[in-house]
Amino acid sequence: MGGNLGGWTGLIVLVLIILLFGAPKLPALAKSLGQSLKIFKSEVRPDSDESKNADSDESDQQKN
C-alpha cells in the first residue's frame, strides 16, 4: 500500500499536511521531528555497540 506512492500522491499528501498544520508551524514541526530522530538514533547506537562487544567476548571465550 505504501510502496506505490507516486509524484502526484506525494504532492497531495504535502498539500494536506500544509493545510492541517499551517505553513508557519511546519519549520517547528520539522525541527522537533529531527531532534526526536537524533535522540532515537543516539539511544539505539549504544545498544548495538554493546551487542557487538558481547558477541566478541563470547567468541573469545569459545576459543579458549
Describe this structure in words.
This protein is mainly alpha-helical. The protein has a domain at 25-64. The protein is 83% helix and 0% strand. The protein is built from two helices and no strands. It has helices at 7-21, 26-63. The mean pLDDT is 76.
Please describe the topology of this protein.
Layout: H1 7-21, H2 26-63
Task: Give a quick precis of the structure.
With 64 residues, the chain is mostly helical.
List keywords for this structure.
64 residues; mainly alpha; 83% helix; flat
Structural category is mainly alpha
Distance between the termini: 51 Å
Output the helix-strand order. HH
| Uncertain ranges | none
Round the mean pLDDT to the nearest integer and report it: 76
Query: Beta-sheet strand percentage?
Result: under 5%
Shape: flat
Q: Please give the count of helices.
A: 2
Q: Give the oligomeric state of the chains in this entry, treating copies of one chain as homo and distinct chains as hetero.
A: single chain
Approximate helicity band: over 70%
Largest sheet: none
* Radius of gyration, CA atoms, in whole angstroms: 21 Å
Number of strands: 0
